[in-house]
Write a structure and sequence with these properties.
By secondary structure, this protein is an alpha+beta fold. It has five helices and four strands. It is 36% helix and 21% strand. It starts with 7 loop residues before the first helix and ends in a 13-residue tail after the last strand. This is Lrp/AsnC family transcriptional regulator.
Length: 152
């Protein structure tokens, strides 16, 4: 459904990479019936088009002793929204920022090494953002389902 803009061969390659992004060009070629060189060219073209954005290692902060993960829902007055978003964007504890529906709202995820670091983010960064009209914070206790990127 999401891959309709790709030809059949690229769809097969993308599906294989979603299953295992570390699969070699040779392995992919064997599975889809083309050469390693052709696979490499197709993957590079998908990367250049922005279809494939990145390959990454995802760390589960809950498996690291003491790590704290929180989601914040923040609402701002319109004139301060851009400045606040930029301030959050520059903070290393903040891992994700999404503009969501509602009046000038941001959904922000942060991962801190300790409760003290999270408290510092809240008191020294979030509480001092200009024009905050509402803020809620939820600590993540456990992951039940966490899908990264597009799943087919």
């Amino acid at each position: 459904m999401f891959l309709e803009g790709l030809d059949e061969l690229d769809q097969k390659i993308v599906r294989l990479l979603i299953e295992n992004a570390r699969m070699s060009y040779s392995e992919i070629g064997e599975k889809v019936g083309i050469s390693r060189v052709a696979v490499k060219a197709r993957i590079q073209a998908l990367e250049q088009r922005g279809v494939i954005e990145e390959y990454t290692t995802i760390i589960n902060p809950q498996k690291i002793s003491g790590a704290v993960s929180c989601y914040f829902e923040l609402e701002f007055s319109p004139e301060t929204f851009a400045q606040a978003a930029e301030t959050l964007k520059q903070n290393e504890t903040v891992t994700q920022i999404y503009r969501v529906t509602g009046k000038n709202k941001l959904h922000v995820h942060a991962v801190a090494a300790s409760n003290e670091e999270m408290e510092h983010l809240i008191h020294e960064v979030i509480d001092r953002l200009p024009g905050v009209t509402d803020c809620s914070c939820n600590v993540i206790l456990s992951r039940i389902k966490d899908i990264k990127g597009l799943r087919l």
